[in-house]
Amino acid sequence: DIQMTQSPSTLSVSVGDRVTITCRASQSISAWVAWYQQKPGKAPKLLIYRASTLQSGVPSRFSGSGSGTEFTLTISSLQPDDFATYYCQQCHSYPVTFGGGTQVEIK
Amino acid sequence: EVQLVESGGGLVQPGGSLRLSCAASGFTFSSHWMHWVRQAPGKGLVWVSRIQTDGSTTTYADSVRGRFTISRDNAKNTLYLQMNSLRAEDTAVYFCARAVSDYFDLWGQGTVVTVSS
Hints:
The complex is a heterodimer.
Chain A: E1 4-7, E2 10-13, E3 19-25, E4 33-38, E5 45-49, E6 53-54, E7 62-67, E8 70-75, E9 85-90, E10 97-98, E11 102-106
Parallel strand pairs in A: 2-11
Antiparallel strand pairs in A: 1-3, 3-8, 4-5, 4-9, 5-6, 7-8, 9-10, 9-11
Chain B: E1 3-7, E2 10-12, E3 18-25, E4 34-39, E5 45-51, E6 58-60, E7 68-73, E8 78-83, E9 92-100, E10 103-107, E11 111-115
Parallel strand pairs in B: 2-11
Antiparallel strand pairs in B: 1-3, 3-8, 4-5, 4-9, 5-6, 7-8, 9-10, 9-11
């Protein structure tokens, strides 16, 4: 199975900060990565797919990059609604696997 | 409205069974592969199973293979997960999700399964 190692596990930030979350795959997965946002008690929400394509309706402050084994989710200027947990997912092969999550919390 | 609504969760003893349902509306259900993903309390997301548009192909995580069965009824726009021989480690929120190229663009709200004596 492909392992997705996400870092950091927790991020303490302020509104307006630039946030970068990294995901590393245990083998090359081209651009087959998606990013999700999850708030407590809610379902995950798709933000980015194919490493860098913004899902319809997602604010442009979210962006994704990377290929091969290293991937990044960036929030250019954190807004109050962005405090949540973020997960990466590899869609390259089965079983699809998720990173361990990054909790973005208020500093 | 485009949505997925799960039901069927609850408290069950170890070794017991449950059947989860996921009712789809607002989109052409029969055109999409569908998946189950679970999340244990305080933990991350774990993929469980998938089913092809016509039900002809199914895939399972190693942890549930032989105990869980995914199925669908396209006439009823409903996805199912039959869970047998349940274990404490199956305790989780179970989400159904619509797939597009193996990423998940639509999720249900989740249904809670608790396996405990």
